[in-house]
Amino acid sequence: MELHTLVGLIGVFCYLLAYALVQMRKLSIDSNSYACLNIAGCLGGLYSLSHDFNLASVISQSMWLIFTLIGMHTSYRRRGVMKNKLPPLDTRK
After folding, report:
1. 3-state class (DSSP) for residue 91
2. Where is the CBU-0592-like domain (predicted)?
C-alpha cells in the first residue's frame, strides 16, 4: 500500500471516529477533539488527493476544513464570552 493511500485511509478513519463518537454522545460537536479529528480527516484526504487528484473531492475536503476552522473559532469566542460573563448583581461581593 502506498503512503498517500494509507494517509487517506487514516483521514477517513478520523472522520468516521468523530462522527461515531458524537452519535454515541461520547463527544460534543463543540469539543476540541471533534474539531481535531475533522481537521486530521481533511488533511489526510487532501494529502491523498494530492497524489490521485479529483477536483470535486478537493473542493469538498477544502470546504470541510474551512467550516471546521470557522466552527472552532466560533466555539472559542463563545467559551470566552461565557467565561468572562459577570455573575448576577445579588451574588457579587
Report:
1. helix
2. 5-79
Judged by phi (left if over 0) then psi (alpha if -120 to 50, else beta), residue 25 lies in: left
DSSP codes, 8-40: HHHHHHHHHHHHHHHHTTSS-TTSHHHHHHHHH
Per-residue pLDDT tens digits for 17-35: 999 999 999 999 989 999 9
Q: Give pTM, 2 decimals.
A: 0.82
* Long-range contact set of residues 78-84: C-beta below 8 Å, sequence gap at least 24: 78/30
What 3-state DSSP class applies to 53? coil
